[in-house]
Amino acid sequence: MTSTEVVRQTPQQKTLAKLITDMTPELAKALPKHVAPERMARIAVTVVRATPKLAECSPASFLGALLTASQLGLEPGPPGEAYFVPYKQTCTFIPGYRGLIKLARQSGQVSDIYAEIVYANDKFKVTRGLQRNIEHEEAADRNNRGKPTDVYAVAKFKDGTTTFVTMTVNEVEAIRKRSMAANNGPWVTDWEAMAKKTAVRQLSKWLPLSAEFNSAVALDGTARTDVGPLVDAQTEFIEGEVVQSGRPEIA
Predict the structure, then answer these.
(1) Higher-confidence residue: 40 or 242?
(2) Residues 88-103: pLDDT tens digits?
(3) Rounded distance, CA 52 to CA 200, Å?
(4) pLDDT tens, position by position, 232-248
(5) What sign does the dihedral 66-67-69-70 (CA atoms) show?
(6) Running DSSP on this structure, what letter comes out for residue 181?
(7) Sequential DSSP letters for 140-173
């Protein structure tokens, strides 16, 4: 951190930065061995600098979100693995699309899992019935694909079978509007990634996934103020996302 950056920090940011540094030993206990606690601490300070309102949140809730991300092995910020979203004076934890995909692939239960956005000028066909299938071809002019119309998520199992769910943009938007971060945070800065994440969450209810993945989904939109193990995390649900029920298509 340069001297200029230090001068530009608000008192709240300086205080939070020190708390993050003090928490490094706890991060070391929580993080996977391949992630250095100093790196996660630097990322956390950068996140605060990029979103000054986080410094106005209670320090306990911010450190709780940081600990949750660390225990799940997800990096907050631009990579899109996790987001820290200020809601009133509370920092909430929101796993990102890349984070859920990362955890799903680490579970060993599926060989691949992904989601895609469909645009108005794409060719898109969904077949139901006994021969369930998705056909999606991007528009020839990739710079003029039109507006988003649908999103789908696909999981491939190790036995070669696949399963998928499809959602319309209207269905995604209905979920967004029920989120505490409907008009700020990743729903504004990373709409496509959040739409993909919504489809993956919809699909995940029918997949055999890891405890870490399930924890990330359970903690989506929550605030945490303890520094204990993830399984014993004391959280408060803050008007988080609501994902509609529904069954996937099996192919």
Answers:
(1) 40
(2) 889 999 999 999 999 9
(3) 30
(4) 666 665 544 444 445 55
(5) positive
(6) T
(7) SSTT---SEEEEEEEEEETTS-EEEEEEEHHHHH
Gyration radius of the chain's alpha carbons:
19
What DSSP string runs through 24-35? HHHHHHHS-TTS
For CA atoms 153, 101, 241, 49, the dihedral sign is: negative
Nearest to 221 by CA among 196, 245, 194, 203: 194
152: tokens are 């789908």
**Cβ neighbours for 71, distance < 8 A, ≥ 6 positions apart:** 30, 31, 229, 230
Contact between residue 100 and residue 216 where contact means Cβ atoms under 8 Å apart: yes
Instruction: Work out the burial of residue 182: count CB atoms within 10 Å of its CB; fewer than 13 is exposed, 13-18 middle, 19 or more buried.
Output: middle
List pLDDT tens digits, range 95-138.
999 999 999 888 787 889 999 999 999 999 999 888 899 999 99
Number of Cβ within a 10 Å radius of residue 157: 16
Structure tokens at 189: 């800065």
Please report the sign of the dihedral spanned by the C-alpha atoms of residue 82, residue 43, residue 227, residue 106: positive
At 51, which helix (H) or strand (E)?
none
Going from the C-alpha of 142 to that of each of 133, 137, 138, the distances in angstroms are 23, 11, 7
Distance CA 133, CA 147 (A): 23
In the block, tokens 């579970």 appear at 107
